[in-house]
């Protein structure tokens, strides 16, 4: 788009004040700004200039949309609900609260093989992680390893701030309600015994969260000593320093914990659980076949009509499976193109007809 | 139970806090700034600069800029407003004999002894008496230029007075050989035709005021006679002249002269005198001093004394002074007329004088049919009120017959139908407004108003200052409360300037009272044209757009947050971070609209002034009616819905990133907010028709600032924040290709209806005018020809 300015010369018109005159010259300054005559351009949107824009937008949007749509369709995704509300479900036995710990196994079949990196998510429904009082119920300075906040958590954490006269670490409702089901995946191969699929638990949180925003408190030799004087959240089974065996994935920097702490936007959400890295170019990461999912069922959702799901998904440059973007691009591109055609026809017709009639659409 | 009630109450308050942004508090700040800064453009305008007084326009208020674009009625004074108020002595009449000066030579310096064109001579004594009266009966002061080698005093006399009439009269007398030299030790010194200095002791001055419309002086001659000279408007003087039969006949002749003069557009004054016996003087003197010393009701007492003194006078003659029309007064009136404004002239002058001025400045055309409601038309009948009633009914019938019933086509009708002008004078007006207590007075008023509204031009003459205000108030309270504008130059216009919505003062020769009491003061009447047609129009369009835009952008802003409540369990969870909530109206979207509302010229200023009909397009508050408001609201609702649900559907996936990491609620809000800021700013960019470098700077600068701020705000762990909710959210968001694509798409969808509307409008308008379209270009920019 060409944008040039035509600089306006300053012309000082009119007779000047007599030289050395005692009267103060109150003539307003003849500057372009004060006279509202700044050089300016007036964009004129005419049919002739906008019609091509419609076509160009149509021509750009439609291919983009098709590209996104195809990419999205190529993504493999399988979703398995293991809430166990259905009486025939193997997890139905875990609905009663006194059956702890409860284990259940769900069988499923992959019709097509999953290639490249595969990601395992857990999904919750009807879980309002975006509730205002829930969202604010955390102490970010405690999570950042601040020693005073560790022993004296923020008031926002109430009522999960102190338990039995000890400060809770990590405090607050978000941490207290952390997802604690354990999911394990097995491939039922041709052999008599099933092969476990290796699940990687690191690399699922934002890099900045893992390395900057979340930090374990300093001091002490062992992690346990660093959390001395604090107690575990009410609903947790184990304290925070026993979340994982690896020291760089334990305490506040446990990635499952960090992922949980990033509150979801909507009441139905997915969170990244594990990575399944591809082994080699030759074999698919998850070949087609029968699998079973071993669940350690700890997390109760039945009381609020919640749902729990396990999702396996491959990925592309645009993320997970999402038909919306592709369809929207194609739709808007087509509308734009069609409008361009309609307007062109109207314009053309109009140009040919006599110039007395007024166009009405 | 009580806990439930408490919960309801706190929920209510929380929602109030959450949605309070929909009431744009920042709009008041921006509107005030726009008004304050915008008013500078009026005082800076060099077209309002007048060489003579070395001054430009004066802006006393910044509150009324947009009202200038909404004016329906203009009330203008005549003298000093439509006319120059630089008086020129044209002729006089002594005892019914007419004297005409050599009109061209007005400087009077060479004319001291020059020949005069006598058509017919009056008695020499009367003539001298008349000239002496002119020399004595005034409040002119003399400023002598003390030039060292100036041999004569008279050579360098400069007269100064509050009224230009007086100067004209004194100068006129000088032309006939009587020169007022000045006052020394309370003695007025007059040089007569024989170059002798006559001294008169000035005893009392009975000052001029607009109600009495006359002034008098009491002087003592060298011989010891005490004389009273009085000059004033004919209607003020004639009733006070001695009632002898001889006088009466003389008065008739005089009157004929006066009226003939008035028809030519001259201002006439009558001069009378009276001899006072020493005994009477004693009494008068005592009364005057008493009245002057009075502590209570001084004004009224003085008036009463003056009234007593100025009786039984002898008429000597009359003067005619010409008041030239102001530069471009006629063109201005014509332009205002074609802009759909109704111009009313309110003057204290005689009907004939005012009428001729109105013709001269084309307020009345030759084709205009005049309806007269004056003492003259009513006097004929015995019962004034009956006659008035008759006339009113008759005129109304005539007008209603001529005009179509619908008021909408009224403005069009002016061009097609017979034009009517109304003339009314002060006494008739007071008869209409406060006639006898019966119920018909109200009826008169409404009929009168009906007549007024159907007339293109109304002339009210012989108005007292308060009556002017009364008329303005009457029109102001009409149905639909039209915006009124008063323009005047003198102290007598102050009441109407204060009464009307917009008061404009002319920085004229009658002091600065009007200018000081006005909202805007301009040097000349002709400046009204640009003030209304260009400045008023632009200010109205700017402020109307500003207000609509503010409501629009705040609705866009809050609607997604409202919709979000359905997805967060109505827990009052804000969608946006607190910093965004605070800075949206303050930083991200404030400057573009402020720059727009200061600089926008959707139509070039020159076009606005040269085509007054454009003013009609915005009349009746056209841009702030229900239609445009609904359009903006619909647009905002549409865009808010697109922002929210676009992002909602975008989030119906496991991940938006190629490494499968998951976004949370703050990323959701930030995507909505980013689309929002870009859309509302680009919407303004689409509306901008006048792109100066300032517009470019603030529009693109605001967007750049938003991006910069977001990076900055998310880039640091802020020690003073309790929650680091925005930490790296913006940067992480931009690392996703899907997010980019979604942002572009949502911005485009939001702006699509607007672009489509613009195109449709343009196709229609441009092809109606010019069927041959230019070659296609992506965007064509037309250079605005801004020659000086």
Automatic annotation (TrEMBL), chain A:
Give the start-end ranges of region Disordered: 1-29
Q: In its keyword annotation, does this UniProt entry include Chloroplast?
A: no
Q: Which GO terms describe its biological process?
A: phospholipid translocation
Main subcellular location of this protein, as a coarse class: membrane
Q: Which GO terms describe its cellular component?
A: apical plasma membrane; endoplasmic reticulum; Golgi apparatus; transport vesicle membrane
Q: Where are the transmembrane segments?
A: 44-70, 324-346
Superkingdom of this entry's organism? Eukaryota
Matches recorded under InterPro entries? CDC50/LEM3_fam
- Membrane association type: Multi-pass membrane protein
Protein name per the record:
Cell cycle control protein
Source organism: Mustela putorius furo
From TrEMBL, chain B:
Q: Where does ATP bind?
A: 77-79, 166, 208, 231, 267, 347-349, 462, 468, 492-493
Primary site of residence:
membrane
Instruction: List the Gene3D superfamilies hit by this protein, alphabetically.
Output: Calcium-transporting ATPase, cytoplasmic domain N, HAD superfamily/HAD-like
P-type ATPase C-terminal domain residues? 515-763
**Which BP terms in the Gene Ontology apply to this protein?**
phospholipid translocation
Q: Where in the cell is it found?
A: Membrane
Q: Which GO terms describe its molecular function?
A: ATP binding; ATP hydrolysis activity; ATPase-coupled intramembrane lipid transporter activity; magnesium ion binding
Tell me what reaction this enzyme catalyses: ATP + H2O + phospholipidSide 1 = ADP + phosphate + phospholipidSide 2
Q: What is this protein called?
A: Phospholipid-transporting ATPase
Origin organism is Mustela putorius furo (European domestic ferret)
């Amino acid at each position: 788009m060409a944008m040039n300015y035509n600089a306006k010369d300053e012309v000082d018109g009119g007779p000047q004040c007599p030289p050395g005159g005692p009267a103060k010259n109150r003539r307003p300054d003849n500057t372009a700004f004060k006279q509202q005559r700044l050089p300016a351009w007036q964009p004129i949107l005419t049919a002739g200039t906008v019609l091509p824009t419609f076509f160009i937008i149509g021509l750009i949007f439609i291919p983009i949309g098709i590209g996104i749509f195809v990419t999205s369709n190529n993504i493999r995704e399988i979703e398995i609900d293991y809430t166990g509300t259905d009486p025939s479900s193997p997890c139905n036995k875990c609905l009663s609260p006194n059956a702890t710990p409860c284990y259940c196994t769900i069988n499923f079949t992959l019709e097509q093989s999953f290639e490249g990196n595969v990601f395992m998510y857990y999904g919750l429904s009807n879980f309002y992680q975006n509730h205002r009082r829930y969202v604010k119920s955390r102490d970010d300075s405690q999570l950042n390893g601040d020693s005073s906040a560790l022993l004296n958590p923020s008031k926002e954490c109430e009522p999960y701030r102190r338990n039995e006269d000890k400060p809770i670490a990590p405090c607050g409702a978000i941490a207290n309600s952390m997802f604690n089901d354990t999911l394990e995946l097995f491939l039922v191969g041709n052999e008599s015994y099933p092969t476990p699929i290796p699940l990687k638990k690191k690399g699922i949180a934002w890099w900045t969260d893992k390395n900057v925003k979340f930090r374990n408190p300093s001091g002490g030799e062992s992690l346990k000593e660093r959390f001395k004087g604090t107690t575990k959240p009410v609903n947790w089974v184990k304290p925070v320093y026993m979340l994982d065996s690896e020291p760089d994935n334990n305490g506040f920097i446990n990635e499952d914990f960090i992922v949980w702490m990033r509150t979801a936007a909507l009441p139905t959400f997915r969170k990244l659980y594990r990575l399944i890295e591809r082994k080699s170019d030759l074999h698919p990461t998850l070949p087609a076949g029968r699998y079973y999912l071993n669940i350690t069922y700890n997390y109760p959702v039945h009381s609020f009509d919640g749902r729990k799901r396990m999702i396996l998904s491959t990925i592309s440059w645009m993320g997970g499976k999402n038909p919306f973007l592709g369809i929207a691009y194609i739709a808007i591109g087509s509308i734009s193109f069609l409008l361009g055609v309609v307007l062109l026809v109207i314009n053309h017709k109009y140009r040919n007809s006599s110039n007395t009639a007024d166009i009405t659409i | 139970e009580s806990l439930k009630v408490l919960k309801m109450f706190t929920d209510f308050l929380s929602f109030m806090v959450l949605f309070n942004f929909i009431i744009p508090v920042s709009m008041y700040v921006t509107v005030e700034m726009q008004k304050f800064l915008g008013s500078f453009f009026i005082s800076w305008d060099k077209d309002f600069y007048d060489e003579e007084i070395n001054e430009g326009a004066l802006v006393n208020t910044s509150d009324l800029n947009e009202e200038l674009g909404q004016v329906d009625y203009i009330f203008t004074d005549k003298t000093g407003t439509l006319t120059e108020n630089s008086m020129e002595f044209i002729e006089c009449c002594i005892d019914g004999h007419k004297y005409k000066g050599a009109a061209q030579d007005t400087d009077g310096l060479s004319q001291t002894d020059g020949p005069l064109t006598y058509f017919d001579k009056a008695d020499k004594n009367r003539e001298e008496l008349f000239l002496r009266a002119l020399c004595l009966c005034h409040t002119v002061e003399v400023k002598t230029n003390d030039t060292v080698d100036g041999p004569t005093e008279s050579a360098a006399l400069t007269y100064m007075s509050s009224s230009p009439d007086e100067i004209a009269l004194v100068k006129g007398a000088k032309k006939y050989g009587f020169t007022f030299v000045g006052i020394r030790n309370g003695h007025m010194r007059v040089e007569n035709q024989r170059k002798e200095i006559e001294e008169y002791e000035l005893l009392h001055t009975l000052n001029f005021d607009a109600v009495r419309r006359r002034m008098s002086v009491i002087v003592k001659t060298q011989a010891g006679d005490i004389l009273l000279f009085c000059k004033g408007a004919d209607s003020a003087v004639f009733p006070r002249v001695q009632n002898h039969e001889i006088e009466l006949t003389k008065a008739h002749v005089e009157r004929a002269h006066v009226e003939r003069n008035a028809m030519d557009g001259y201002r006439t004054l009558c001069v009378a005198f009276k001899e006072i016996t020493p005994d009477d003087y004693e009494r008068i003197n005592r009364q005057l001093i008493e009245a002057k010393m009075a502590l209570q009701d001084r004004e009224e007492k003085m008036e009463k004394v003056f009234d007593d003194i100025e009786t039984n006078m002898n008429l000597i003659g009359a003067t005619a002074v010409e008041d030239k029309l102001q530069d471009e007064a006629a063109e201005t009136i014509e332009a205002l007329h074609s802009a759909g404004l109704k111009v009313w002239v309110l003057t204290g002058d005689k009907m004939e004088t005012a009428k001729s001025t109105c013709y001269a400045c084309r307020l009345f055309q030759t084709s205009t049919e005049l309806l007269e409601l004056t003492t003259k038309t009513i006097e004929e009948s015995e019962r004034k009120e009956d006659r008035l009633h008759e006339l009113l009914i008759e005129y109304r019938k005539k007008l209603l017959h001529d005009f179509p019933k619908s008021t909408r086509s009224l403005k069009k009708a002016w061009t097609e139908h017979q034009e009517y002008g109304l003339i009314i004078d002060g006494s008739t007006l007071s008869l209409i407004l406060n006639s006898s207590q019966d119920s018909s007075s109200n009826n008169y008023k409404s009929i009168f108003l009906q007549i007024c509204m159907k007339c293109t031009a109304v002339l009210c003459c012989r108005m007292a200052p308060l009556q002017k205000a009364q008329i303005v108030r009457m029109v102001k309270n009409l149905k639909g409360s039209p915006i009124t504008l008063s323009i005047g130059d003198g102290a007598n216009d102050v009441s109407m300037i204060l009464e009307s919505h917009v008061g404009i003062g002319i920085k004229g020769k009658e002091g600065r009272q009007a200018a000081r009491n006005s909202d805007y003061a301009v040097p000349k009447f002709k400046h009204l044209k640009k003030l209304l047609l260009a400045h008023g129009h632009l200010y109205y369009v700017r402020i109307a757009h500003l207000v609509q835009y503010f409501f629009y952008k705040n609705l866009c802003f809050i609607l997604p947050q409202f919709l979000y409540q359905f997805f967060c369990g109505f827990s009052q969870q804000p969608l946006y971070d607190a910093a965004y909530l605070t800075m949206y109206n303050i930083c991200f979207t404030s400057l573009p609209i402020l720059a727009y509302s200061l600089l926008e010229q959707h139509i070039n200023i020159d076009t606005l002034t040269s085509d007054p009909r454009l003013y009609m397009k915005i009349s009746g508050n056209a841009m702030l009616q229900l239609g445009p408001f609904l359009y903006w609201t619909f647009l905002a609702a549409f865009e808010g819905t697109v922002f929210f649900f676009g992002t909602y559907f975008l989030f119906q996936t496991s991940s938006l990133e190629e490494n499968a990491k998951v976004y949370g609620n703050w990323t959701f809000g930030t995507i909505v907010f980013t689309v929002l800021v870009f859309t509302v700013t680009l919407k303004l960019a689409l509306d901008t028709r006048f792109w100066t470098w300032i517009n470019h700077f603030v529009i693109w600068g605001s967007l750049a600032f938003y991006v910069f701020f977001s990076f900055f705000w998310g880039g640091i762990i802020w020690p003073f924040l309790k929650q680091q909710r925005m930490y790296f959210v913006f940067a992480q968001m931009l690392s996703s290709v899907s997010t980019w694509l979604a942002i572009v798409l949502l911005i485009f969808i939001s702006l699509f209806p607007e672009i489509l509307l613009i195109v449709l409008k343009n196709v229609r308008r441009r092809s109606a005018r010019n069927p041959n379209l230019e070659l296609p270009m992506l965007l064509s920019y037309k250079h605005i020809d801004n020659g000086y």
